[in-house]
# Entry
Amino acid sequence: MTPATHHSPGTPAPPARVLLLGFGAIGRHVATLLAPEREAGLLRMCAAERDVSAHRERAVPGVELSTTGTDTDCPTWDEALAATDLVVECAGVEPAGEYGPGVVAAGIDLVLTSVGALADPGTARRLLAGPGRLWVTNGAIGGFDVLGAAADSGGLDAVRIRTSKLPTSLLRPWMIETEKAELRALRPGDEPVTVFSGGPAEAIERFPANVNVAVGLAWATRGRTQPGGDGAGDGAGVGPQAGGAEEAELLQRSLDRVRVELVADPDAGRSRHAILATGDAGRFELTFESAPSPENPRTSGLTALSVTRTVREALNLT
Ligand SMILES: NC(=O)C1=CN([C@@H]2O[C@H](COP(=O)(O)OP(=O)(O)OC[C@H]3O[C@@H](n4cnc5c(N)ncnc54)[C@H](O)[C@@H]3O)[C@@H](O)[C@H]2O)C=CC1
Ligand SMILES: O=C([O-])CC(=O)C(=O)O
# Structure
């Protein structure tokens, strides 16, 4: 539902009610970027966290808190959701899969930041099943107008992404000690080390906070099955989807095509995403090195900017 478009002519639109799931680096940055809309009375914002008490001292003006946990002095997730027009997930792949399907099933639109959640076929089907609309943010990469157009025409055979990050940002609990030690020992000037090479589904399982972009790329290049169809698969990487089961199937095929390389680079002052897509449509090479997030230097700041843009689009605030 988009309140900006569902009101009687002549009366001012009521503020859109936005619920952030997760109030970490991205959620806080998005809340800050949307301050002008809050101050203009165009939207009201609430943020759900597991442990609200840990967030009280870092309040963002005009953002109420609610909880997915056991705090008793603020609205519960269900209470907050009942008073929401748009949920913006920026909590992680696991919470996206846990809460996202219930949001769209309740008929509420969902902006997905942890796009990696779509790599699980069951979760993807539920997220795309409606009646709430799924908006898949571009996140830390883009150029999806070009890549989507090429994929829509069947013009891409190979799609690759090489993501380079600082070694310590790639440490994961499942790594064996020697692997962790190798990453910790890397110093500027050392040769980069490839920590993963394969498909997006396996990549996101191993590195859920680092390769959402790879699943986002698969989403953007899923193509379409209905020439001149109903707008589904318009390739922009964001937008309402029709025909959820078909979209989920296209995505699965696209996930099989995308190849991912994740690299620990001690000289990667900024996270770097290099995309190469080739086929009958041509050869497309795109590289992204965005400024870091002001809240977390290991995350691309572009993600919060993309999410903010997606929120504005979903609410017709552009
Ligand atoms: N699409 C893209 O290009 C990108 C996507 N991401 C995704 O965005 C996610 C968030 O990123 P950051 O804000 O940097 O992480 P963060 O760790 O700073 O913030 C996540 C917040 O979500 C909260 N959270 C986790 N589980 C929750 C639950 N069940 N209920 C309520 N709150 C919960 C955490 O307490 C934390 O405050 C990442 O985990 C990743 O999946 C991140 C970067 C790029
Ligand atoms: O922030 C970035 O550079 C990308 C990222 O972590 C992800 O895609 O999960």
About this structure: The chain has a mean pLDDT of 91. The radius of gyration is 20 Å. The chain has two domains: 3-136, 144-289. The chain is about 30% helix and 20% strand.
